[in-house]
TrEMBL record:
Protein name in the entry: Protoporphyrinogen oxidase
Name of the encoding gene: LOC105162979
Domain Amine oxidase: 134-588
Organism encoding this protein: Sesamum indicum (Oriental sesame)
Catalysed reaction, written as an equation: protoporphyrinogen IX + 3 O2 = protoporphyrin IX + 3 H2O2
Record-linked Pfam families: Amino_oxidase
GO annotation, cellular component aspect: chloroplast thylakoid
Coiled coil, from the record: none
UniProt-listed Enzyme Commission number(s): 1.3.3.4
Free-text comment on the cofactor: Binds 1 FAD per subunit.
Gene Ontology biological-process entries: protoporphyrinogen IX biosynthetic process
Taxonomic superkingdom: Eukaryota
GO molecular function: oxygen-dependent protoporphyrinogen oxidase activity
Length: 603
């Protein structure tokens, strides 16, 4: 570790993301002297105390100086006078002091070359994964751990890893502004354990209820078959209709690809659709069930009817098949969830991408925006990136694109217009995550269980006169998410049935959510909520609509028929949107990449 002297720095602005700050740095390093009189560096506040630490996420000094600096680097800073206060969030502000940057420095050629250099001097990696969301990082992790291949790079346009995963921690609160939790499936748990996070896992109480708003009342959803006769979300005739349909007394499947709405109304009746599945579609996809494809969006349930003649018939058949085929013993390292629940990590979901990124070290390149992909004469691909230090290119035997489909479409257009056109068809509606807190006393008495707000959260069917799609009881679900006496609520609003949310200001979004909550969960005379975060995702979640699987086939066939071997599509629009599906998809892609590399003739 060598030291770099920080001569001066100046905070000149903050990013949309509340924990990022732009700094202009003036530094001197011991090997050579150079300065950044007005360089714009993006920094994450790493630790606050009497001194401040920032994790630099700027990667391009190598091309400027010929000195290769391995990031992440840390700047620690002590104000010159103990009374001088520095807050990176109070900007613009000029502050001088004694600080230093700690990072490792190596002389010699950088790992990547500028685009002006001769191609032959560049080293070829086995795989470049574009996008450091959960999909991209898990593909890299699976290649490194399961397939012992670390000759890879992960490149990411943003200055942070995680993609949609956005954990924020401030003032005693810890909250999520993207996904809030995952299903603790075995692949997901394997990924967590392989990333060193076994002891950081937190699982929700499987007995905690989930609620649906119906006729102005929050009603619990049955969590086990024993609850079915007693829950009051559905009428007795509605339950009978569902039961008969589930055993096969219902109209046969039509000859076309069914929407979720058609499939559920036909198989289980209108009450199951309107009171359970429609709100559930909002919860998973923020989607419109009349447009989502049952086969693409909920393929496992769709297959039950196809394989067993009815939902119950298919369930029995699946159980029989599972018990008759020998199963590999379960990995003994994996924790066993006690029932149907959801999981996260002690310090939020971001722990997983951060842990994978740290173990990959300088194989992860941040602030690298892919601009073009071209094929190389003897096989493989050249990728060109815009980076803070200028254009950089990489050569790779294989490439996995885990960027959203509309980004992949732009990248692929020069290679295959058919693939590009297909990928452009997928729709990502906007969703806003509104995180607010109330004092505990603000919760209505009838919503408390043993004096506490208990449960996973609540979903709101579109027919019930509220705009908010659903509310997660974040402070009840996982420990240490809010200070004592406070309740932390994460609300999602928008989606395929309400794309107009993008026209609202952040305070209008908070007003809409607060107004909705006062109709069923919060006392009407409660004080205004403390607003922690309002994040609008303009293109949030890919919709698996009717025709989705055909669109994917068209894009993938166009690439393989066009001879683009070793170019793979990954990410949530391929694997499925839930985090667990992204992880399962990542293991599959890593397998495909490994198979491909083993056949590479030009290796
Ligand atoms: C508001 C919201 C709530 C959700 N809630 C849940 C939930 O509770 N549970 C659950 O299981 N799932 C949830 N999901 C879904 C889940 O979060 C996503 O499906 C998953 O995170 C997608 O991961 P990904 O890696 O496939 O894509 P992304 O996270 O989108 O990652 C793609 C990455 O590619 C990068 N990129 C883009 N362009 C370029 C370029 N040109 N060059 C380099 N990199 C580029 C992006 O910056 C990004 O980091 C939610 C999603 C949203 C938006």
């Amino acid at each position: 570790m060598k030291r770099i002297k920080l001569l001066d720095y100046r905070a000149i602005g903050t990013d949309d993301e509340s924990d990022l700050v732009f700094l202009s740095l003036h530094v001197e390093i011991s090997l050579r002297f150079f300065s950044f009189p007005s360089s714009l560096l993006r920094c994450r506040v790493y630790h606050a105390g009497t001194s401040f630490k920032f994790q630099l996420q700027f990667l391009s000094m190598a091309s400027l100086t010929g000195v290769h600096i391995h990031f992440p680097a840390f700047i620690s800073f002590k104000p010159l006078s103990p009374s001088s206060q520095f807050s990176p969030f109070a900007t613009p502000r000029h502050t001088s002091g004694i600080g230093r940057i700690r990072c490792s420095i190596a002389e010699g050629p950088p790992a990547v070359s500028s685009s002006s250099e001769n191609d032959s001097q560049k080293s070829m990696v086995d795989c470049v994964i574009v996008g450091a969301g959960i999909s991209g990082l898990c593909i890299a992790q699976a290649l490194a751990t399961k397939h012992a291949n670390s000759n890879l790079m992960v490149t990411e346009a943003r200055e942070r890893v995680g993609g949609n995963i956005t954990t924020v921690e401030r003032d005693g609160y810890l909250w999520e502004e993207g996904p809030n939790s995952f299903q603790p499936s075995d692949p997901m748990l394997t990924m967590a354990v392989d990333s060193g996070l076994k002891d950081e896992l937190v699982l929700g109480d499987p007995n905690a209820p989930r609620f649906v708003l119906w006729n102005s009342k929050l009603r619990p959803v049955p969590s086990k078959p024993m609850d079915l006769p007693f829950f009051d979300l559905m009428s007795f005739p509605g339950k009978l209709r569902a039961g008969f349909g589930a055993i096969g007394l219902r109209p046969p499947p039509p000859g076309h690809e069914e929407s979720v709405e058609e499939f559920v109304r036909r198989n289980l009746g209108s009450e199951v659709f309107e009171r359970l599945i429609e709100p559930f579609c909002s919860g998973v996809y923020a989607g419109d069930p009349s447009k989502l494809s049952m086969k693409a969006a909920f393929g496992k349930v769709w297959k039950l009817e196809k394989n067993g003649g009815s939902i119950i018939g298919g369930t029995f058949k699946a159980i029989q098949e599972k018990s008759s085929s020998p199963r590999a013993p379960r990995d003994p390292r994996l924790p066993k969830p006690k029932g149907q629940t959801v999981g996260s990590f002690r310090r939020g979901l971001a722990m997983l991408p951060n842990a994978i990124s740290s173990s990959l070290g300088n194989k992860v390149k941040l602030s690298w925006r892919l601009t073009t992909i071209t094929t190389l004469e003897n096989g493989g691909y050249s990728l060109t990136y815009e980076t803070p230090g200028g254009l950089v290119s990489l050569r790779s035997r294989s490439v996995v694109l885990t960027v959203p489909s509309y980004v992949a479409s732009t990248m692929l257009r020069p290679l295959s217009a058919v693939a590009a056109d297909a990928l452009l068809k997928l729709y990502y509606p906007p969703v806003a995550a509104v995180t607010i807190s109330y004092p505990k006393e603000a919760i209505r008495k009838e919503c408390l269980i043993d004096g506490e707000l208990k449960g996973f959260g609540q979903l709101h069917p579109r027919s019930q006169g509220v705009e908010t799609l659903g509310t997660i009881y974040s402070s009840s679900l996982f420990p240490n998410r809010a200070p004592p006496g406070r309740v932390l609520l994460l609300n999602y609003i928008g989606g395929a049935t309400n794309p107009g949310i993008t026209l609202k200001t952040k305070s209008q979004l908070v007003d809409s959510v607060d107004r909705d909550l006062r109709k069923m969960l919060i006392n009407t005379n409660a004080p205004d909520p403390l607003v922690l975060g309002v994040r609008v995702w303009p293109q949030a979640i890919p919709q698996f609509m009717i025709g989705h699987l055909d669109v994917l086939d068209t894009a993938q066939n166009a690439l393989s028929n066009g001879g683009f071997k070793g170019l793979f599509l990954g990410g949530n629009y391929v694997s499925g949107v839930a985090l667990g599906r992204c992880v399962e998809g990542a293991y599959d892609v890593a397998e495909e990449v490994t198979d491909y590399l083993s056949q590479c003739v030009y290796r």
